Amino acid sequence: MAEQEPKSTAQVDELAQKVAEVVLGEDGQPLSKKALKKLEKEREKEQRRQERLAREAAERAAREAAEVDYAKDKYGRAPVNMSREQTQTKWTALGDLTADMVGRLVNVQARVQDSRAQGNKLCFLVLREAMETAQAVVMVTKDTVSKQMAKFAASISAESIVTLTAVVVKPEVPVESCTVGNVELRVETLFVTSEVKVPLPFSLEDAMHSEQDYEKDPTLNRVGLDTRLNSRSVDLRTITNNAIFKIQAAVCQLFREYLINQGATEIHTPKIISTASEGGSNVFQITYFKGAAFLAQSPQLYKQACIAADFGKVFEIAPVFRAEDSNTLRHLTEYVGLDLEFAFREHYHEVMYTIGDMFVYIFKNLEARWARELAIVRRQYPSEPIKFDEKPLRLEYPEAIALLRANGEEIGDFDDMSTPQEKLLGKLVKQKYDTDFYMLDKFPLAVRPFYTMPDPTDANYSNSYDFFLRGQEIMSGAQRVHDADLLKERVAAHGIPLESLDHYIKAFEYGCPPHAGGGVGLERVVMFYLGINNIRMTSLFPRDPKRVDP
Question: Which residues, including other chains, have CB under 8 Å from residue 157's CB and lie 6 or more apart?
């Protein structure tokens, strides 16, 4: 049989073309002539539709290009602010907008939280400034706002900062979605002064949902804590976080107010020290030129040195460093300490009750002077206001142990309480005394630092105390050992080399009045007061064993 001659390139191309033109149906078989005709008609119809859409788009673009943009100088992207000039412009904060201002022209600078177009003649903007939000309306008019301006407003990316002038108007119905709901802004000029050009790590709206929101709608996006903390500068923009840290600042302000009114002096002590403040191993060692040093675990030794220097009453607000590998909901490796130390005349209770009165002052003033911030936080993180007495409840350690044992806890007379036992004690105290805030006095000496004064009648106990809020410790304090000989005994009992505390001990050898004090964890106070369940949410940029950024 003769061999078949190979096909030419042209023949191969022709065959490939015919194969390509074969149209297969859903069953994988070639379509019939009737089906092919129907398919061809559908293709022609779709082609005509696409041509029509393209023609309409071109005509619309031509019309828009032909339209005179009479607002072209009233909107756009402003150049970078390099402080070229300073005008006498009067600015209005969103929180200052009131119904009394209806009809007035105002200048506003705020973030665009959201933009929403309705057709091509109307755009709504939700503006946000710190804890306040307000609605702005960009509405096309014959001579002020053009379609192009409305289109520009709708294109502004979320979280961009804008500067605008607007007339304050009364909305037809209150704007319930904004904190400023009784007025809105009718925009006349609109300029973007800082544009967001990259995707946000998460939606600010998603970050402001409460647990109740998720219960009502489980499909809502939940922003995880790590996601928040990894982009903390964005997370801190939420209204709730703004309020949390205003409350944190308020606690510091009230702490300072009260103590200054008590005649105390604010001091600033070193944070790089030659020996561990508290003893033990939970201390950060650092390289210090050719030697080593430590980050202060507390200002304890320096507070007492100031008492020995006859300052009488001192306090400090400063960072504290603890090298504790504790990945719990209430521990940080760096936190803000509110520390105080007072000399007293006869009994350390003079100081302990002063501290109790200080907390009452803080709690009462928070509710009275920061009520708005508290309401904002409680909207996202619901909690009941704390209950407390004008004269704080004082319990002694044996009483607390008895309460726990009566409720099934196994604990020795001189054992330190675990966190679950502290929480249980808080519940029992609330049930029995109807208070969220109390003082626990007379801790076992064995569980307190070397500088704690022993109890004068029972050496198993000490003149030391903790303060508790909602069942968890917010402050630890005590009468300090001010006698040099007794101090040396206590240092030796803790196995600390005397030479490492030589400068500290010398201060007492030169004479020192009896004194007491304590240290408060700022983030803990805010956390427990607000009923928030993680201390990282009340720390601006938290540090724990797994996080040193951002």
Answer: 112, 195, 196, 197
3-state secondary structure of 166: strand
Exposure class string for 53-74: b at 16+ Cβ within 10 A, else e = eeeeeeeeeeeeeeeeeebeeb
Nearest to 231 by CA among 204, 254, 253: 204
Residue 115 bridge partners (DSSP):
125
Report the candidate in 485, 504, 488 with the shortest Cα–Cα distance to residue 496.
Answer: 488
Helix or strand or coil: residue 403?
helix
Which one, of 279, 355, 284, 283, lies nearest residue 313 by Cα? Answer: 355
Q: By C-alpha distance, which of 548, 547, 537, 531 is closest to 228?
A: 537
At 369-426, the pLDDT tens digits run 999 999 999 999 999 999 999 999 999 999 999 999 999 999 999 999 999 999 999 9
What is this structure's pTM?
Answer: 0.86
CB neighbours of 293 closer than 8 A, spacing ≥ 6? 272, 273, 274, 285, 286, 287
Q: Which residues of the chain have pLDDT under 70?
A: 1-28, 63-66, 277-281
Helix (H, G, I), strand (E, B) or coil at 447: helix
CA 237 to chain centre: 9
Judge whether 322 and 297 are in contact, CB under 8 Å: yes
Q: Give me the pLDDT at residue 28, please.
A: 67
The residues carrying an active-site annotation are 322, 324, 330-331, 473, 476, 524
How high is the pLDDT of residue 169? 98
Q: What is the pLDDT of residues 224-270, one digit of tens each?
A: 999 999 999 999 999 999 999 999 999 999 999 999 999 999 999 99
Residues 380 and 208: beta-carbon distance below 8 Å: yes
Distance of CA 482 to the CA centre of its chain: 40
**Residue whose pair of structure tokens reads 């029972």 in the numeric block:** 458
Q: Are 234 and 204 in contact (CB under 8 A)?
A: yes
What are the CA-CA distances from residue 375 to residues 97, 236, 542 (Å)? 20, 17, 24
Tell me the per-residue pLDDT of 267-306, one tens digit each, with 9 for 90 and over.
Answer: 999 999 987 766 666 899 999 999 999 999 999 999 999 9
> In this predicted structure, what is the pLDDT of residue 55?
85
Determine which helix (DSSP H) or strand (DSSP E) holds 341, and give its type and residue range. Answer: strand 334-343
141 vs 167: CA distance, rounded Å: 14
